[in-house]
Design a protein that fits this description.
Elements lengths: L2 E9 L2 H14 L4 E7 L11 E7 L3 H12 L4 E9 L2
Antiparallel strand pairs: 1-3, 1-4, 2-3
Length: 86
């Protein structure tokens, strides 16, 4: 049975939070297998809200620490989900 940790991270202040968020991601870099960032962008517009999807590996303690560190940043909401095959 394989289990996967997928964390979603929502920021409503992407431009101001980028430095602190990047520091947290770098600190936990060894457990981040995949990182996908999504935000609305165009020629004349770049949204300050963003969604990041992380595929995580590593111990539950490390995943929980990452989630807590992200949630300690004002304007950031992080939630981990684990899904397992039969």
């Amino acid at each position: 049975m394989a289990c996967y940790n997928v964390m979603t991270v929502l920021t409503n202040n992407r431009i101001e939070n980028v430095s602190e968020m990047q520091h947290v991601f770098t600190k936990s870099g060894c457990i981040i297998k995949t990182r996908l960032g999504i935000h609305d962008a165009g020629e004349d517009f770049c949204s300050n809200e963003g969604l990041i999807i992380l595929h995580l590996i590593g111990a539950d303690k490390e995943v929980l620490e990452l989630e807590e560190n992200l949630n300690n940043i004002p304007g950031v909401k992080a939630k981990n989900s684990q899904i397992c095959s039969d």
